[in-house]
Amino acid sequence: MQSALALLLVVATVGVRAVPFSLVDTPAKCTNPTKRVSWHDVSAEDKKAYISAEQCIMNAEAKLKKMPGAKTQWDELVGLHQILSLQIHSTGTFLPYHRYMLHAHEHLLNQCGYNKGLPYWDETRDAGNFSISPVFDSVLGFGGTGQGTSKCVEDGPFRNFTVNIGPGFTSQPRCVNRQITNALSSYCSASAVQKAISPTTYEEAWRAIYSGPHLMGHIALSMMNADSITSNGDPLFFMHHGFVDKMWADWQAKDPKRLTEISGLNAQDPKVGFLEFPGGIEEESKMWGHPTTEMKAVTPDPTTGDKGGNQTTLGHVMTSLGIIPDTTLENIMDTKGGYLCYEYV
Ligand SMILES: [Cu+2]
């Protein structure tokens, strides 16, 4: 009986292995996770390497020719966020998709020679007084608050840099801009984070993270005029979203069952749109317009992998339009699951 069971297991295992994967992402084992370290604790040498890799992405010519208006690889990353913005905000895919996008960003950094773990910004350490944070250093950071009416960042490594995507669903060359409001940054405190990751269901947790420290951080930083569609034009966006991703990872770490727990819509309900704005998509489009025909032509079907339904499932297929291969949501649930292999320290 036991040997029959063993045989059955062998057959089952071989059977699973024999299934051809249509997606290029057969998870390997994660034995030595890379460390994602807060910018405070990154060495000067690694900060320089990260910044110069970021500049390399910004200077690299666009190669996918899919994101309308993109001239550089940075523009392609911003264009990706623009094209998917009505699917990945205020939905169940918000946390997983931004985790996947950090991974796509990491791939571009790797190609530009940066091979350490992705840094992030532990905002709890600067909450209430963001402007003193080392992330705003003009040499070993992202430059400070913007100047003049344009709020262009005029110091630091990105001061002369042009983003060609945005605002909203347009493609107009503009500076990296931001505006720090210290008072609002207190909503990114350790206690605010604890509150955001205290819910017991994924549905409540993503909403608490989204509307809590995630949203408040965006408002406190006002990156790219706080444009919900293209705020990732500011490289600081990825520091903030590492912080957001850590919140999800910390929530998941409280119970192993949470590594398979997913729910929520896979695209915005047009009547609701962004949770933080009233009126739904039509009303909100007065701020940033509509996706253009060219954008619509490359916008993925948000139900792909979700059996055609509007609810996010583990089978949900995430695409970066070619920056990295498509993958399933299941593969990115665990930051140490093999497809991904990192941890926040
Ligand atoms: Cu986003």
From TrEMBL:
Tyrosinase copper-binding domain residues: 234-245
Q: Which InterPro entries match?
A: Di-copper_centre_dom_sf, Tyrosinase/Hemocyanin, Tyrosinase_Cu-bd
Locate the coiled-coil region(s) and give their ranges: none
- Give the superkingdom in one word: Eukaryota
**A GO MF term:** oxidoreductase activity
Presence of the UniProt keyword Oxidoreductase in the record: no
**What Pfam families does the database record attribute to this sequence?**
Tyrosinase (PF00264)
Q: Which residues form the signal peptide?
A: 1-18
Keywords from UniProt, A to Z, are: Copper, Metal-binding, Signal
Specify the protein name.
Answer: Di-copper centre-containing protein
Q: Which organism is it from?
A: Paraphaeosphaeria sporulosa
